[in-house]
């Protein structure tokens, strides 16, 4: 439910005027379309994508399943948390990778790892929920500071906290084991399955990515999500209507922090270790690049941007080697790709797709010329 102070009388029964724009994230349709089952409203393209992803292990090798797609789903979840804040809440945060690292560190500290002098060795059904909870609380505290500012000031506050978190984990040996970090952090054996094997990890990361995506879509259409979008568009008007603007923004940080924590735990399980570099400033900016390249307007943009980033990050060293250039310059290719996408479409790849679709709709299918 939306967090309000004192809603005005009759607010619950109020209906928007005819022709009023719907908040982003709320699907429109013809009269009677609400009577359709939710499964009938899923486009055919999504069903095709689901079939491809489900049967991917039948055609892809372990490298693609574990390294490419597994990493894509993980980074996509972390970028999805940023998309929720920026796209639905209008708050660009650079703390999401730090929140993800906090979740990963907590799994290593609370559960078993190779550093037995620090790790507590709690069972999975206790250390995983606690790790997500602690990371969400961390995000909430950051949000309580950041939401009292706007624009560039919010970015700078979250960047400063992300930088401080990196140096704290690097210099603290009693809790975070300093520069070395933790190793041998692996997923628990459940149902007799080793979830770090390529096929099992692929389905694990895919399933959690789908759940996080569905959670963001669902929350964006709840009263809380619609109110958050109203706060994004006109916070003064929402405050005048009785909504607690600050509470909505902080709650958005909490929800986004839980999603980022899930991605951070998977990232630790994939690498079997975590170190301060996981939350370093390059990783912090990479999440922003992923979200912007994919598109901040819709949740699918986070995963599109993650796939593009992972492909560039994985195969750009081979391209550079072919041209007898240093592998250290792979960031140059990523940066150039980012500039090209943003130059042609500030809305990322989703913006390019929308423009292509709009231009295609204006052309006559027989002549190929634009309709008047």
Walk me through this protein's architecture.
It is a single chain. The protein has one domain (59-361). The N and C termini lie far apart (46 Å). A two-stranded antiparallel ribbon has the order 1-2. It contains 13 helices and two strands. The chain is mainly alpha-helical and 372 residues long. The model is unreliable at 6-34 (pLDDT under 50).
**Unreliable stretches:** 6-34
Shape descriptor reads globular
Q: Structural class given helices, strands, pairing?
A: mainly alpha
Task: Tell me the β content.
Answer: under 5%
Query: Distance between termini?
Result: 46 Å
Overall average pLDDT: 86
Total strand count, please? 2
Q: In DSSP terms, counting alpha (H) and pi (I) runs of 4 or more, how many helices?
A: 13
Radius of gyration: 22 Å
Q: Helical content, roughly?
A: 55-70%
Order of helices and strands: HHHHHEHHHHEHHHH
Describe the sheet with the most strands.
2 strands, antiparallel
Instruction: Identify the quaternary structure here.
Output: single chain
List the domain count as a whole number.
1
The main sheet orders its strands as 1-2
Biased composition (Pro residues): 1-10
Transmembrane segments: 44-63, 69-87, 94-112, 124-145, 152-169, 175-193, 200-219, 250-269, 281-312, 332-353
Membrane topology: Multi-pass membrane protein
Organism: Szabonella alba
């Amino acid at each position: 439910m939306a967090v309000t102070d004192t809603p005005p009388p009759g607010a619950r029964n109020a209906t928007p005027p005819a022709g009023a724009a719907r908040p982003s994230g709320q699907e429109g349709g013809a009269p009677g379309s609400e009577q359709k089952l939710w499964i009938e409203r899923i486009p055919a393209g999504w069903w095709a994508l689901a079939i491809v992803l489900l049967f991917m292990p039948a055609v892809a090798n372990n490298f693609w399943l574990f390294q490419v797609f597994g990493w894509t789903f993980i980074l996509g979840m972390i970028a999805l948390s940023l998309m929720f804040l920026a796209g639905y809440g209008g708050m660009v945060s650079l703390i999401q990778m730090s929140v993800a690292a906090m979740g990963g560190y907590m799994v290593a500290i609370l559960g078993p790892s190779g550093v037995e002098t620090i790790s507590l060795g709690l069972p999975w059904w206790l250390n995983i929920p606690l790790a997500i909870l602690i990371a969400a609380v961390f995000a909430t505290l950051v949000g309580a500071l950041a939401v009292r500012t706007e624009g560039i000031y919010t970015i700078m506050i979250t960047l400063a906290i992300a930088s401080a978190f990196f140096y704290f984990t690097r210099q603290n040996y009693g809790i975070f084991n300093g520069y070395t970090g933790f190793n041998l952090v692996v997923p628990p054996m459940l149902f007799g399955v080793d979830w770090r094997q390529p096929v099992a990890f692929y389905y694990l990361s895919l399933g959690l990515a789908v759940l996080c995506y569905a959670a963001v879509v669902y929350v964006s259409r709840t009263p809380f999500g619609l109110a958050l979008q109203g706060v994004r568009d006109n916070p003064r008007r929402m405050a005048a209507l009785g909504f607690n603007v600050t509470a909505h923004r902080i709650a958005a940080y909490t929800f986004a922090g839980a999603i980022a924590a899930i991605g951070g735990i998977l990232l630790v399980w994939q690498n079997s270790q975590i170190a301060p570099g996981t939350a370093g400033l390059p990783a912090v900016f990479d999440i922003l690049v992923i979200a912007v390249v994919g598109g901040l307007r819709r949740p699918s943009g986070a995963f599109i941007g993650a796939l593009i980033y992972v492909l560039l990050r994985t195969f750009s060293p081979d391209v550079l080697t072919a041209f007898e250039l240093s592998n250290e310059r792979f960031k140059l290719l990523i940066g150039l790709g980012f500039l090209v996408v943003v130059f042609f479409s500030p809305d990322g790849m989703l913006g390019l797709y929308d423009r292509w679709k709009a231009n295609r709709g204006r052309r006559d299918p027989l002549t190929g010329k634009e309709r008047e």
